[in-house]
Amino acid sequence: RVDFILSRDRIAYALEANTIPGFTTHSLLPRAAAKEGLSMSDLCVKIIETAYSSLVTRRSSLVKRGRRYAPQDTR
Fold this sequence. Notes:
alpha+beta, extended, two-stranded antiparallel sheet
């Protein structure tokens, strides 16, 4: 995971790269979300919904370009 901070003039700065990230109520992202009124539960739901929406959009884009989406066999 890579943590970024966004300056007032909308420039993103990388803070750190962490290969073993934690995700607790004391972590930076949940604390920032809490300042915006988003609970830890709502933050988790938002992350999942955003990832799912991105996947659906990507699959749709691949189909429109004539490519088939074939999920990896996980067996």
